[in-house]
Every structure is written in structure tokens, then in C-alpha cells.
Amino acid sequence: MTRETETTPAPEQAPGRRDFLGMVTTAGTVTGIAACAIPFVESLQPQDSAAAHLPVDVDISHLAPGQQMVAVWQGKPVFIIRRTPEELASLQNASLSAQLKDANSTAHQQPDYARNWHRSATPEYGVYVGICTHLGCVPSYNPPQGSGPEASGGYGCPCHGSRFDLAGRVQKGAPAPYNLPVPPYAMPSATVIRLGENPKGETFDFSTIEQI
Questions:
Q1: List of E strands, the chain
Q2: Which residues form the Rieske domain (predicted)?
Q3: Pick the CATH number of 22-41+51-208 from 2.160.10.10, 4.10.240.10, 2.102.10.10, 3.40.50.300
Q4: Do 135 and 39 contact (CB within 8 A), yes or no?
Q5: Alpha carbon distance 212, 197 (integer Å)
């Protein structure tokens, strides 16, 4: 059963606070930012505010398995998904992987710590910049349902039909040339994802990716 989109109430904002104050959590069809077919070309322009380049802390304590939430980092939507064991198993399915352009993440679209079959620092949580690598539209989240093409879930671009799996890997035949980018991020605790900061001992410059 599809739930209505839930928005977590935002606490009062203190000057200079880095915490992300607006987030969307859904167990079904995503509305709002994740479903908009709006190119994010303007988000790629240099930002004047120094605060825009600070790390952003996202509270994931209420994110249940099978749900996705959307955060904003440097003006870009970031999909954060908590994958179920069944969804993780589908990412390792050989027949499904054979349908992907870059199943092994050979293109430089992620940090080294996310160059793996789940394209993330830990298998359970996926973190992807939600901008199609074709012409910059925002893909919509399609949770696993039924059988056939939708059985394993993923993301679909509403502009030109590119499809990505739950690890942000693009399917063969799609106009998008690359997988969804993975931003630099760390998990300072089990309930917080910090966007814009690499784990200790890791280095990754987001500006060096192939394409967004």
C-alpha cells in the first residue's frame, strides 16, 4: 500500500547550523522534489555562500527499511535509501546486472569507498545525487512491486526514460551515459549521514566525477 509523502517537522534554525532541516520520507511513490522533471542546471553554478559548502548532517533515525528520503546538498537533491535484504539480493542478481551499462562502477562517478556492488559505504544505505546524467532531470523513486521490470525497483527519469537500479546504476539502452553520482559522505553515527565529508582516511573530490 502506498503511503502519502511524509515531511519531518523542522526544528528552529540557529544561525550557522549545518543540520539539514527539510527532508522527505516515503515508502511508496515520491512526490515533490524526487518526482519533478526539472533540470538542475542552475544548481551546477558556483555558489557564493560559504555555508553552501559546509557538510550537511541528515538524521536517518526514522528511515525504515524499504524507504527513501531526499536531502539537499550544495543545491542538489540527494536520495538516501535504506535497502531491504531482498533489495540488496537483487543488486547481486547476475541476470539483472547484465542489463546494466556499468555494473562494476568503472566510470569515475563515486568515491573509491563506494566502488562496489552496492555503490555505498555500507550495503544497507544508498546515497546518490538525484540528477539524471543525461540532461539533468530528477528521477523518480520506484519501490519494488509485483513482477516484471518493476520487481526490483529503482529510479526512472521522467524526461527521457533512463532507468537506474537501487544502486543508481543505469540500464543499457538508456540515454543517460553514466550511473548516478555518489557524493562524499560519512556516517559519524548509526543514525546520521554527513553529506560533503569523506570517512576518516578517505579522499574524494566530487568535482572530479565524469558527469552529473
A1: 6-7, 24-26, 56-59, 68-73, 76-82, 125-129, 140-142, 154-156, 163-164, 185-189, 192-195
A2: 92-194
A3: 2.102.10.10
A4: yes
A5: 19
Residue with cell 557538510: 55
Closest CA to 161 of 184, 183, 134: 134
Total number of residues shown for the chain: 212
Per-residue pLDDT of the chain (212 residues; tens, 9 = 90+): 333 333 333 333 333 333 433 344 444 434 334 333 334 444 444 455 566 678 999 999 999 999 999 999 999 999 999 999 999 999 999 988 999 999 999 999 999 999 999 999 999 999 999 999 999 899 999 988 766 555 678 999 999 999 999 999 999 999 999 999 999 999 999 999 999 999 999 999 999 999 87
Quote the longest CA-to-CA distance of the chain.
51
**Whole-number Cα distances in Å, 63 to 17, 60, 66, 82:** 22, 5, 8, 7
134 has catalytic annotation: no
Report how far residue 105's alpha carbon sits from residue 29's, in angstroms, rounded to the nearest whole number: 27
Catalytic residue among 53, 62, 108, 160: 160
C-alpha cell at 7: 515531511
The amino acid present at 190, given as its one-letter code, is: A
